[in-house]
Design a protein that fits this description.
Layout (H helix, E strand, L loop, with lengths): L2 H30 L3 H24 L6 H29 L3 H29 L9 E4 L5 E3 L16 E3 L1
Antiparallel strand pairs: 1-2, 1-3
Length: about 170
């Protein structure tokens, strides 16, 4: 693939991915404002943006076998842990942006957990085994993810277990 086309696909993937997430959040807000049909419009468009992003990812060759995908996922989490969030947190702290520090710190801590989960899943995938069939829970506030029993209180942000979503 020519370099400019590859860069354009990467940019399109990023843009479509961001639009997907933005519209999901817009839908949640519309629902809270008792506008369910506008929420559905946002959800439908978010899905379309997801389709676009997925198509771009496939064109970039970014979808491989599960073991390779787990390596890529862990690598991304490790980059966020080791480089991205520490740098972003330092800048926010330097600039006195307290409102940005909390979600960045929460994300950093959650990413550490994600890296561990991906590493364990990779070992299973390499052995041609699936991970245990237990519930997976995600804190709706900070993104902390756990397999098995939901904690009474989130170890990152401190919310009660009622704020966890089951997968």
């Amino acid at each position: 693939m020519q370099k400019m086309t590859e860069e354009n696909l990467k940019a399109a993937f990023a843009g479509e991915s961001q639009a997907h997430m933005k519209y999901i959040n817009f839908a949640e807000k519309a629902r809270k404002e008792n506008l369910p049909n506008i929420a559905r419009l946002f959800e439908a468009t978010a899905y379309a943006e997801r389709v676009h992003a997925s198509n771009h990812l496939r064109a970039l060759g970014g979808l491989q076998d599960t073991t390779t995908n787990l390596v890529a996922a862990k690598s991304g989490e490790d980059f966020e842990i080791g480089e991205m969030y520490p740098a972003y947190i330092a800048v926010a702290r330097e600039q006195g942006e307290d409102k940005a520090l909390r979600p960045m710190n929460w994300a950093l801590e959650a990413e550490k957990n994600h890296s561990v989960l991906y590493g364990a899943a990779r070992e299973k995938a390499e052995a041609k085994q699936d991970i245990s069939a237990v519930d997976i829970w995600v804190c709706d506030v900070c993104g902390y993810t756990v397999e098995g029993d939901v904690p009474d209180v989130c170890p990152i942000c401190g919310v009660k277990h009622e704020k966890f979503s089951k997968f």
